[in-house]
Design goal:
The structure holds 2 protein chains of 2 kinds. Chain A is an alpha+beta fold. In chain A, about 50% of the residues lie in helices and about 10% in strands. Chain A is globular, with a radius of gyration of 35 Å. The termini of chain A are far apart. Chain B is elongated, with a radius of gyration of 20 Å. Chain B has 8 helices and 5 strands, in the order βββββαααααααα. Classes of the chains: A alpha+beta, B mainly alpha. Chains A and B meet through helix 6, helix 8, helix 9 and helix 11 of A and helix 6, helix 7 and helix 8 of B.
């Protein structure tokens, strides 16, 4: 067995011995320097100082290591390289400085150590000190200090991930020769604050008692992690290609420790994979002299789009609507067939119908990573096209919109004088694509701002307040004030000057550069796809599978070849399975996907709980309903329902919880149920495949509360409470029930009314406490004639539930006089409502108090 | 103008409600608060005096400082606590804490003290090395004010659920330090608050969830 395999199999305490036997001699100095730094941290010394960075208080901070000797600087600088500054951009990133500071803060202020240690910091990577923190101190201390983060609720959120992270924390302690026992005390959930402080201090005291050979141990730990990454991918003969191991996480660790791949393989006692020994020679990427027909067809649509864009902006004048949505966005949820008057619809509405149809046909396809051999529909074709319009479209849009907003008083994120700085990145990107923009335009704009200073005023509103002083009938002075309606700024003549100036520059750019720009765009994308593919090929030593190659080619194929990666591969002579074209799915989506999505949203809205913020509720429901398309496209690809995790990410948890009061799995079941119902109504074949797994939602629940709510049905089992003797709560307070819209059929049953008739039906209602209600533990249901017709509002329910429960405990069912009412055809709504006649809660409690002891039912 | 000291207590405001003043935060029933050494010593006690209003001849009150000099505008409704914190945002950052702490030692209503405690909290949080001991004391005093009478602490200012923020801040502080039992206790207090003043959003994991997670890991 190789030393590397010994290392992976050994206990963490033994890594140091194995490491000593195999490490290169050149590591010794680095280990010494590293040992001194880590020892200073663990001993609770002040080791880092943070100051303002080169970009001021809003930018990344600068970190300095206290007490770093010149000699150690030399040693570290031989191993760590500082990233170069590109285009005036200071390299920066987040580093867990809190963990580095914790030993010091626990020592100096044990009770508030976590708060004083701060949080993960955003720092400049412009100094050696910052690189030492990023590469060595933060990773090691982050693992050691996880025990503190765990109690604070930081880090992973699932039980398994927490256990894994804790195990890593223990392993790091054992590898560094630090005591593990103090950690266990901190896992006790019954610790008071004082006990936490004591346990925390004990952990840090154990860190301070670290062994002398700390530097070697830290290096052994880092090398053991490299070995674990290596053997996770290695074959039985111990070989693996560098490209398979050297991920973005592993590469920096290797560079900072053993240095390079060859040294790592030697350190582990393995031999190089044959692909690394004699790398596969891959052909040079060559592109055709002229755009092939698939690309030429798309270039023609893009040119036509630019013509439409230019015409619209050149003709823009006062009184017209803003053109801010003229450029489609990748995340524009205006799907084909959607009402074009809705926000975001301008991108579609502005295009001539034939151009729109061509764009939707050319970019209306995709392949899913899980089913790379099947072509399915792309729900947002204009979104794909939008990617090919950038960065030029956003560049010209910013200029035009800044001019429009400056003259007509709408908000825009930049004023005209800020554009030169703000557009630096876009200009660089355009220059890289061989289509530079003349910066003279900014000078010309500034000249106009001198002539019309209002152009630089960010606020576009003027507000006036009028005061009036008068004398009233008895001679007293009366002062009144009135705020005038805000006046929107309007300078059509100045806008026309700006518009013509920008149009002149834009048209100059379009005539001179658009062809180069588009040519560069497709050539650059095809070249990048081919190079990424061949890099993967060389790394593996053989052709990647289609699934493996898809990340390299899928985006380019979707943009230029209608998602046909085979056509792209054949054009670029990419060798391997990737040159097989995907087949169009035989399963067709419903013709009215947007309408179906809308119907799903309507159904989900019935299942959503009432919220104060109705617009948020509707947004959250629409967001969930939008996933119906994801489910349908997955069905189109595979014929099956996709797993919940591939549709609803865990980041949706909070929104789902707030809106539906359930977890992600239950929300997914709701979505599937609503989608199934909408498909079934259309008689679409997907309805047989897209069905909710009800038993997974509420195990064993025949009367499923979720589906019950979804359908707006009131299927309630008669409870013993409903068979109790009614206790009439009498009073003059009118209390509105809520949620009656879900129970209209039950209310219609009660009053036998026809739609549109005016109704006023006196009746008797029963109140039932629902402490197990999944939406609201204070819920009180309202029933009439044994049917659920609504609930008390969230404001009334907490007051009434204890009274209703108290009555039930004494053997009574709370009842009251009620009225089912509807205003008739002239009313705002056709729905029937329920109004309860109740005493005040105080009066009700007083009545209850008169019922001494466990009285027999009256 | 004849004037006399007015005992602290309730008084009908002009709007028909009741205004309740206390000589200092530490005198509010249910609030445990010791004067801090950091409080600006230049602000000393104040008291209300009864005066006859010049225009309508009604009996009104006016606030005067310990030396009997009027505070603020002649008929200002603001209490000495509010008047003292008027200059909070204009004061140099280093002086804001001592100003806010001093304002807790002069007469005010529950709402005035609640507001002033939030100023003091802000001043502590903006320190280079915040005094978390003091922060905890400030939050606890705010919570005592809120739990005893949330609507009085809100002083009629919308949104009402802002009075729950000190509980959220203390929960966050305790959770960050891993004081999960104490955090869970604050969490319970939050959930027992009347709905109209209960904070609507608490970021991060619930303390009970974290306690369960620890139980599971043991």
């Amino acid at each position: 067995m190789s030393l590397g395999r010994d290392l992976v199999a050994a206990e963490p305490e033994d890594w140091i011995e194995i490491h000593r036997a195999t490490r290169p001699e050149t590591l010794a100095a680095l280990e010494d320097a590293l040992g001194r730094r880590v020892a200073a941290v663990l001993s609770g010394e002040k080791v880092v100082r943070i100051s303002r960075g080169s970009q001021g208080p809003e930018g990344p901070s600068r970190v300095k290591l206290v007490g770093l000797s010149e000699k150690d600087c030399e040693i570290f600088s031989a191993r760590l390289s500082i990233p170069a500054i590109k285009r005036d951009r200071v390299p920066a990133g987040s580093v867990d400085l809190r963990s580095i500071r914790l030993p010091e803060t626990v020592r100096t202020s044990p009770r508030w150590a976590m708060s004083l240690a701060g949080t993960t910091s955003y720092i400049e990577f412009t100094t050696l000190d910052s690189m030492i923190c990023q590469r060595f101190l933060a990773p090691v201390m982050g693992d050691l200090a996880y025990i503190f983060s765990l109690r604070a609720g930081d880090g992973p959120k699932t039980a398994k991930a927490r256990a894994d992270r804790l195990a890593r924390c223990e392993i790091t302690h054992r590898a560094l020769g630090l005591a593990v026992d103090p950690l266990k005390a901190l896992l006790d959930p019954n610790l008071t604050a004082d006990a936490v402080v004591t346990c925390r201090s004990a952990v840090v005291a154990a860190w301070a008692a670290h062994p002398q050979d700390l530097g070697e141990r830290v290096m052994a730990l880092l090398c053991a992690r490299l070995a674990q990454a290596y053997y996770a991918k290695a074959r039985k003969d111990g070989t693996v290609e560098a490209a398979r191991v050297m991920t973005a996480n592993v590469t920096p660790v290797l560079e900072s420790t053993l240095g390079d791949w060859e040294t790592l393989v030697g350190y582990l006692g393995e031999t190089q994979a044959s692909a690394d020994q004699s790398p596969v020679v891959t052909p040079k990427v060559t592109l055709p002299g002229e755009a092939p027909s698939a690309i030429a067809e798309r270039l023609a649509v893009l040119r036509e789009w630019w013509r439409v864009y230019d015409t619209r902006h050149a003709a823009q004048c006062a009184g017209m609507a803003s053109l801010k949505d003229l450029v489609p966005s990748r995340w524009d949820y205006s799907t084909p067939g959607q009402d074009p008057t809705r926000p975001g619809g301008l991108a579609r509405r502005a295009l001539p119908p034939d151009l729109l149809a061509r764009a939707e046909q050319l970019w209306g396809w995709q392949v899913l990573p899980s089913q790379p051999d099947v072509l399915v529909n792309e729900p947002r074709p204009l979104g794909v096209m939008a990617e090919l319009l950038q960065p030029a479209a956003s560049f010209w849009d910013e200029l035009s919109l800044a001019a429009w907003c400056s003259c007509f008083g709408s908000y825009f994120r930049y004023t005209l004088d800020q554009l030169e700085d703000a557009q630096r990145d876009s200009r660089d990107a355009l220059a890289d694509l061989g289509a530079p923009v003349e910066t003279r335009i900014y000078g010309d704009l500034l000249k106009l701002t001198t002539r019309y200073p209002f152009l630089l005023e960010a606020e576009g509103y003027s507000v006036g307040i009028t005061f009036e002083i008068d004398v009233d009938d008895v001679g007293d002075t009366v002062v009144s004030s009135r705020m005038d309606d805000p006046e929107r700024r309007s300078h059509p003549e100045v806008f026309e000057i700006l518009r013509d100036l920008i149009t002149e520059y834009r048209q100059g750019w379009l005539s001179e550069h658009l062809d180069h720009y588009l040519e560069h765009l497709w050539r650059r994308e095809l070249t990048a796809a081919a190079e990424a593919y061949w890099k993967r090929y060389r790394g593996r030593g053989k052709a990647p599978t289609v699934k493996q190659a898809l990340p390299d080619v899928a985006r380019c194929a979707q943009r230029w070849f209608g998602a046909d990666h085979g056509a792209l591969a054949r054009l670029l002579a990419l060798d391997g399975a990737i040159d097989q074209s995907p087949m169009r799915s035989s399963r067709a989506l419903p013709e009215d996907v947007p309408a179906l999505e809308h119907e799903v949203a309507e159904r989900l809205l019935e299942a959503a709980r009432p919220l104060d913020d109705e617009s948020y509720r509707q947004w959250a429901v629409a967001r969930l309903a939008g996933h119906a398309t994801t489910v349908l496209i997955a069905w189109q690809a595979s014929g099956c329902v996709p797993p919940r995790s591939s549709v609803l990410a865990s980041s949706s948890r909070q929104v789902v919880d707030q809106t539906f009061g359930c977890n992600l799995d239950d929300a997914y079941t709701l979505l599937l149920a609503a989608t199934h119902a909408a498909l079934e109504r259309r008689g679409h074949p997907a309805a047989t495949a897209i069905v909710p797994n009800v038993t997974a939602m509420v195990p064993g629940a025949a009367e499923n509360v979720w589906l019950d709510r979804l359908g707006g049905r009131s299927k309630r089992v008669v409870t013993p409470q409903q068979q109790m003797t009614p206790f009439l709560l009498q009073g003059d307070e009118i209390v509105d029930a809520v949620g009656e819209s879900f129970y209209q059929s039950a209310l219609l049953d009660q009053c036998r009314a026809q739609d549109g008739n005016s109704v006023r039906l006196p009746c008797r209602a029963q109140l039932i406490a629902e402490p197990d209600n999944p939406y609201d533990r204070h819920a009180v249901a309202v029933e009439i004639g044994g049917q659920l017709v609504g609930y008390l509002s969230r404001r009334d329910a907490p007051i009434w539930q204890p009274i209703v429960k108290d009555l039930a405990d004494r053997g009574y069912a709370a009842a009251c006089e009620a009225m089912i009412a509807r205003r008739g055809p002239e009313g705002e709504t056709d729905n029937l409502g329920v109004f309860l006649h109740l005493p005040t809660p105080t009066e009700a409690r007083a009545e209850l108090a008169l019922m001494v002891g466990p009285a027999e039912p009256r | 103008v004849a004037r006399a000291r007015v005992p602290f207590g309730q008084r009908d405001s002009e709007g028909g409600g009741v205004i309740e003043w206390y000589p200092r935060l530490g005198d509010v029933p249910g609030v445990t608060w010791q004067k801090r050494a950091e409080a600006d010593p230049r602000l000393s006690g104040a008291y209300a005096v009864a005066v006859i209003k010049r225009f309508d001849g009604d009996l009104g009150i006016r606030w005067v400082d310990a030396g009997g000099e009027p505070l603020g505008d002649e008929w200002a409704d603001e209490s000495p606590t509010s008047l003292a914190t008027r200059g909070y945002f204009d004061a140099p950052p280093k002086e804001r804490l001592s100003l806010a702490l001093a304002a807790l030692e002069v007469p005010g209503t529950r709402a005035d003290f609640f507001e002033t405690l939030s100023y003091a909290q802000r001043a502590v949080e903006q320190q280079t090395a915040p005094d978390f001991e003091l922060l905890e004391a400030l939050l606890q005093a705010s919570i005592q004010l809120v739990l005893r009478d949330p609507l009085a602490a809100a002083g009629g200012h919308e949104p009402l659920d802002r009075v729950g923020l000190p509980l959220v801040d203390l929960l966050t502080l305790y959770r960050r330090e891993g004081f999960l039992l104490e955090a869970a206790d604050v969490d319970r207090q939050i959930h027992e608050m009347p709905e109209e003043v209960r904070p609507r959003f608490i970021a991060g994991s619930a303390p009970l969830t974290l306690l369960d997670a620890l139980e599971e890991l043991q």
